[in-house]
Amino acid sequence: MIHAVIMAGGAGTRFWPASRRDRPKQFLELADGRPLLRATFERVAPIIPADRIWVVSGQRTIEATRLLLPELPRDNVLGEPSGRDTAACAGYAAQVVLSRDPDGVCVVLPADHVIDDAERLRSALTAGARHVASEGGLLTFGVRPTRPETGYGYLKIGDAYSELGGWQVHRLERFVEKPDVATARTYVASDGYLWNSGMFAWRAGDLLDEIRRQLPLLADGLQLIADAIGLPNEASTLREVYPHLPRTSLDFGIMEGAKDAWTIPLDFCWSDVGSWPALAEILARDPHGNVLQGRVLPIDARHNVLISEGPVITAVDIEGVIVVATADAVLVFPAASGQRVKEVVSRLQELGWDDIL
């Protein structure tokens, strides 16, 4: 009984101005003409029925999520009253799954990733679910690195433990924070490290046991929410308790200290599409290396990302620049500064310009 948990509560601030509060990154059609959330759902739907697919969304986007995924039962869209990071998100979903299925196994996926081989992903997810169903513990899926990327965390893999459906399951030795370029080069050369994909598999009960062991305050809050599931006060309890849950990530708060941690190395193309410049890695480019969407005209321009949702963009004699135009905002920056776009959102908040957030 595999359940899929799709984490779709992120704000996507690095994709402003296209990403807004009411249409965050996971609703954008960045890769193949489908919203990222829709693509994530369609990757798992062939192996997991809709009544066992759960989407954890922000309160502002609950109805938009239901409209985008009409196949889901209405109650399978879980609304977070406020964002409390991925440990609370996954723990909340685990409590809901456990209330329906005491032996439920969860595969946990971010809503905003791009993967080029859905069939291989489904095969790997199935192998991971089978492993944790029989062996217990918490499993993360890692990606074989293809370059010395400094924007990702890494996983140090241990000895091979078993093989399931053609996939090697390894002990996971440790998580490694985002490295500098020199360190990343050594990781890639060693063949002993993987990119941390942010995808996981575990029995719902095993995750909650680890939360109880490592994060007792989070466990106490989640138990209050769980005790109200199916009762008249379920919604009010969620509203009262959830905003006060400790804020921490799955990686730092749980996986780094897990008793039994596993990993499966993945061998297909994957991207978390973490910023506008990342589109140059996953989308087709013109002969001059430009990514072009909408009414855009490059002249003697190279290695740029030019995206318009309306206004015409013309770019002359520029290189390595990102230009994104919507109906009410324009963003321009050098590709090397992609991670700083979230600072723009912070400044706009300080200015009180809520109409463009």
Write the layout of secondary structure elements.
Blueprint lengths: L1 E7 L27 H9 L8 E6 L3 H7 L8 E4 L4 H16 L4 E6 L3 E2 L2 H18 L2 E6 L10 E11 L2 E10 L4 H10 L2 E11 H11 L1 H12 L6 H8 L8 H4 L7 E6 L3 E2 L7 H4 L8 E3 L2 E4 L5 E4 L4 E4 L4 E5 L4 E5 L6 H11 L6
Parallel strand pairs: 1-2, 1-4, 2-3, 6-10, 12-14, 13-15, 14-16
Antiparallel strand pairs: 4-9, 5-11, 6-9, 7-8, 7-9, 8-10, 16-17
Report on this model:
With 357 residues, the protein is of the alpha/beta class. It has two domains: 2-271, Spore Coat Polysaccharide Biosynthesis Protein SpsA, Chain A (Alpha-Beta Complex), CATH 3.90.550; 276-356, no CATH class. It has eleven helices and 17 strands. The protein has helices spanning 36-44, 62-68, 85-100, 118-135, 181-190, 204-214, 216-227, 234-241, 250-253, 279-282, 341-351; strands at 2-8, 53-58, 77-80, 105-110, 114-115, 138-143, 154-164, 167-176, 193-203, 261-266, 270-271, 291-293, 296-299, 305-308, 313-316, 321-325, 330-334. Strands 6-9-7-8-10 form a five-stranded mixed beta barrel. Helix 3 packs parallel to helix 7, helix 6 crosses helix 7 and helix 7 packs antiparallel against helix 8 (234-241). It starts with a strand and ends in a 6-residue tail after the last helix. The mean pLDDT is 95.
